[in-house]
Amino acid sequence: MSLQEWTSLFWKQIKETDVLQWLAVITGVAEVLLAKANKILLYPAGIISTLLSIYILFDVELYAECLLNAYYLVMSIYGWWYWAKKKDKPPVPISQCNRNEWLTVILIVAGGFAVLAFALKYYTTSTVPFWDAWVSATAWAGMWLLSRRKIENWVLLNISNLFAIPLLFYKQLPMFAMLTIFLFIVAVFGFFDWKRIISKQKLFSA
Questions:
Q1: What confidence tier does 74 reach under pLDDT thresholds 50, 70, 90?
Q2: What is the pLDDT at residue 103?
Q3: Partners of 95 in the β-ladder
Q4: Of 150, 132, 129, residue with least CA distance to 141
Q5: Residue-wise over 18-35: b if at least 16 C-beta within 10 A, else e?
């Protein structure tokens, strides 16, 4: 397909995008901007976005993405609680992964990919079982790290985003693909913003 045909298809799909997709995209943008700013309000925005996304993605048979968003929903609730300032306790600081947390990340990615790929290939009508499974497994790990305010969440989420962008275009969801491109860019800046915060925390604690 030529660039002109891709452009024509993209604008056609944009025009046909319904209200639910626009709402999912808008709340998704709000979520990542709030995450970049290290604000707890990222979680209610994320809850709205994930609920809408589950409905939309199920319709195009991206089943692992649906499960991913269901996981986002659970982790958003957990993260909201975990980030909340407890009585007589300071808020959870941004930090880097330790060895045990990296092992957890590896288990989430490897285990999630294996289970999802098998389930999608043999028990669903998915046309992209391995692709869909990889995107979801890496994002699962990233979201777990985000909920624990680990800077490496941006790395895992962007690995997922990198593979999700062509997948979403392939499934003719241009608004979701454009949102993911935006999320990729913001995640790069988010990583460096959080890195500066960690440096300041170390300076003040010295």
A1: confident
A2: 97
A3: 150
A4: 150
A5: eeebeebbebbbbbbbbb
**Residue 141 token pair:** 């790990």
Which of the four pLDDT bands, split at 50, 70 and 90, describes residue 142? very high
Tell the burial category of 153 from Cβ atoms under 10 Å away from its Cβ (0-12, 13-18, 19+).
buried
Residues 6+ apart with CB under 8 A from 185: none
Q: Where are the domains of the chain?
A: 17-84+95-205
CA-CA-CA-CA dihedral for 64, 22, 60, 113, to nearest 10 = -10
Find out whether 68 and 139 touch, Cβ atoms under 8 Å.
yes
pTM of the model: 0.77
Q: What is the pLDDT of residues 152-167, one digit of tens each?
A: 999 999 999 999 999 9
